[in-house]
Amino acid sequence: MLAFMNLPVYSYNETDDFAILKVHEMGLEMPYLTPTFRPDFYTLMIVLDGAGTLVSGNEVFEVGPGNVFMKRPDIYFSSGWTEMKTVYNISFSREFIADILPFGMEEFLEMDNSNGLNYLFNQEDIKRFEDICLEIYAEAISMTTFKYEMISNLLVNILLLIQQHQNAVELAIQNEKHDVIFTAFCRNLDQNFNGLISGETDVVLRLREHAELLNITENNLSKIISKSSGKTINQWINAKLIDEITYLLKNTDKSMSEIAQLYGFRELKQFYSFFKKHTSKTAISVRNDFNASQNELTHIYKGDVVNIRPSW
Fold this sequence. Notes:
alpha+beta
């Protein structure tokens, strides 16, 4: 490829499985446009300072300072550069590092069948890439016996840095998606209880109904809510039920039967059992204890001494 473009073919790149180039030292006249090739190796572009456009398959990637680009083999590839100050190009075959690949790296190298990865790193992280590139370059031009073993290990370090960043990006995207779903679940939960208190419905929505509202599977919804909040869907619903029931016990004169019916309990015994299970108190004792504690509480309203709440 270098010979085809009339660019220097350096003698230290003596194997077909690996090459490293300081592209900024190759004398490219800006702007520079390469032909389209279909390399059978992985390509890494580490851009410390430069600006260009990389075309991999049918995808276009803009690169600038801090970008690290990676392309898998057997994809049509070309590049165009408008600025070239510090750019490293590393090419390698899978066989070159196959013997030392850590667990999970094989899957990463498939790149989800995408044509390219392009990530932007901060100044500190991109400096780590440059340091490793310089170490690789120093080994490449050396005459040491085990230089390719050293290079392959250093190369895996670069791949691990990219994989780590990819995982962080995917996690952030996943968390954002999960946050949206969790927020929607909480909104639907509130709307359900608003409907219960207004009499528009007498059904407390559970996992199946909430999953249908959000158009996702019950299993996925359960996992998302648990991971996002540390609580299960039933814990959220039951806690909401207890809060609503407790409020009515303390602040209204609704009978136990009315409250039970309002929240979908078909039998009063079931209502009593549910409340006792989740609070370790009976519904009657909660109401009575609250009434007793409020008897002596008064405040001044427009010059008159009045009870904090109306008597029943």
